[in-house]
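## tool: complex_structure
## caller: assistant
## args:
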Amino acid sequence: MSRHDRIKRGGLLAALLVFAVLARSQALAAPADALMPIEKYTTPKARTLANTHRLRLLEFSEQIYNCMPWVAVYPGRLGFPKYKDSADDERYLSTWIYVDQRDDPVFAALPQERRVSAMFSRYGVDMLRRMAGLSDVVDDSDVAGLSVVLSWLKPGTSKPGQQAVNETVALFIDKTTAADFLAKRVGGEEFMSRARFNVFDGERLLGRLPIEVWEDSFNSTYKLSNYTPPKGARCQ
Amino acid sequence: MRAWLSLASLLGGIVLLTAACATSEEWSEWRGHTTHFASGTHGFFSLRNNKDGSNPRVSRTDVDAARSENWWGKAITVSPEQIFQN
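## result:
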């Protein structure tokens, strides 16, 4: 084989390798993809928050990505949005996660408000606790509170030939109430009465369903069998 | 000689990149057992056993690969504009 052929073959293989790496990485939602792009924020306050706390949010995203593979942060939904009808520029540390679960007859048999209660108790409270743990972010005077949005597959909608539907609950709560609730100084009923929240069935607004909140330690105790976190990940 | 060493390294890299994942059949099976509904009951998120009795190991990359074809953007979901403003 001539030197020219060897160089050509080497180049071709290198190109194949690069293609293989790119093809794989495009299929993945890397932790950085979860962060709201800074250029999408509409006010200087929000952009400053996003810039100042970018590394902490990235660490937070990596923690979820590596240690809680049963949930996923939607791309671009971890950041500092404001409530949609807010007249002022109150910014919330917010995470929107998708809970990856399949249809189950027991879950499906629950009335919708019980499903929302169960999902918020399990995943919403846990996410609030995790976000509250980012004390340097939460203590920023430009952060008004915490927000968690949860989506999951609505039971019975993932049938062949029809488009599946997600149920969603979106909640916004001020910092003081969040801290008091997590420290058990405020009960679940009071917490929900102070929160701004809405439930959606697909794209349809259902409003404030009667949600109950109870103790659920799933996320702090659950271990996915056979799952190996990426090397270097610190999962508690 | 040097060219062949480079060739071997490149091929090795490609093999590592593609072989570190479970097969699509394994993942289809795994996806069928991911229910861990919010009832307070744990342990629905289990993997099937291999025929030799061992359990397949699951990496974060495997989870991504299984999800990429299944759920991003496919279900009808409320839009962000109905919830918040950037």
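## assistant note: The mean pLDDT of chain A is 87. Chain A has nine helices and eight strands. Handing back to user.
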